[in-house]
Amino acid sequence: MCGRSTAAAVTMALGGVRVLELAGLAPAPLCGMILADFGAQVVRVDRLSQAAAASGHGDVQARGKRSLALDLKRPQGAAALRRLCRGADVLIEPFRHGVMERLGLGPELLLQENPRLIYARLTGFGQTGKYAKSAGHDINYLALSGVLSKLGRKNEKPYAPLNLLADFAGGGVMCALGIVIALFERARSGRGQVIDASMVEGVAYLSSFLWKSEKLGLWGQPRGENLLDGGAPFYEIYRTSDGKFMAVGAIEPIFYKQLIKGLGLNLDELPAQMSLSDWPEMKKKFASIFAQKTQAEWCSIFDSTDACVTPVLSFNDAASYQHNKQRSSFIKNDQGEISPRPAPVLSRTPAVPSCKREPFIGEHTEEILLEYGFTRQEIAKLYSDKAIEFKNLKANL
After folding, report:
1. Of these four, 29, 30, 86, 297, which has the most CB atoms within 10 Å of its CB?
2. Where are the transmembrane segments (predicted)?
3. CA distances (Å), 282 to each of 255, 265, 310, in order?
């Protein structure tokens, strides 16, 4: 479900929260989109279109946001952002350490002018430490967190799974969590604070189970030979006869029994489930059986069981899959683009994402500045000073 009204936005969980998101790469836009999906009024503060185009990065996570084009390198632009922050609840800042301070927009100054401001700093390495001013990407943050060393197949080098873990989970989602926590605390104290969201630490925190379960023996074998990293035959992905795949996660004995039954095998004639030395041979046996039927045939066998066997779906298939359709897990915007519905689902104040297209750079510059108390004369002066930009310049300016 999407296509919210103004009234719906106000009644959502984050209705009335004003957020300024300084345009950046993938993690910060996800953070802003999460807040927007749950009702926050998110303004993406873009660089002027020429500078934005030169960066080569478009924001595909701008659902529910509006765009204000502002040149922060010009004193007039930086002063405008300071003024905007006086009326905002949250600032999401994705730059490397020291950038905002050089612009005269550091947290000390902005919090002095607005003590209720939540100043969220989302970076790869954090605000302190050896790499605070260094460039990096998801794979680098994964590497430093220790998580990358755990990812990969037996006898192969570590493998980074797209850029989901550090950028989006450890970065965007963790930063959004920090913002909501800070907003909750502000309701008691009336005071804002600075959030230092490091993607290295965010993804490390996500891996707490790995750290805390090492003593249980779950990760005692080399990479790719353990229970949950591809070593076990009952926690693996198998190819079907039509070139598709089935995901198997039959860890517990009661589920494993149903897996074995569905495969047409006799449990009494097989090695013990947790006999590690037999795992390689069992994987070969399972693979040869899965290769004998199509994905649809395996679904018909396992769908009514608790064998923990499911099809590996493409994006297109996931959006049309019966279970997902029953839950309306995917939504379609006004342009016909399909994407995941915001999660989790709240019973009383659920997210109602916008169906509108994502904003053009500078599309809402005038209306945003007016909302934040700028006069039309001040807006015209900012335009003449080349500190702001409009997608469609109004005649009265």
Report:
1. 29
2. 164-184
3. 16, 11, 19
DSSP 8-state assignment for residue 245: E
CATH of the domain at 289: 3.30.1540.10
Q: E strand or H helix at 44, and its extent?
A: strand 41-46
Which residue's structure tokens are 């016909």? 336
307 and 254 in one domain? yes
Q: Which residue segment(s) compose the domain that 58 sits in?
A: 18-207+348-385
Distance of alpha carbon 125 from alpha carbon 96, whole angstroms: 9
Rounded to a whole number, what is the distance in angstroms from the first to the last CA of the chain? 38
Per the CB < 8 A criterion, the answer to whether 259 and 247 are in contact is no
Confidence of residue 6 (pLDDT cuts 50, 70, 90): low
Give the SS3 label for residue 238: strand
Q: Which residues pair with 67 in a beta bridge?
A: 44
Q: Could you give the CA distance from residue 32 to residue 16 in angstroms, rounded to a whole number?
A: 14
Tell me: the pLDDT tens digits for 90-127?
A: 999 999 989 999 999 999 999 999 999 999 999 999 99
Instruction: Specify whether the CB–CB gap between 48 and 360 falls below 8 A.
Output: no
pLDDT tens column, 290-347:
999 999 999 999 999 999 999 999 999 999 999 999 999 999 999 899 999 999 999 9
Which stretches of 96-241 are assigned E, i.e. beta strand? 118-123, 193-198, 235-239
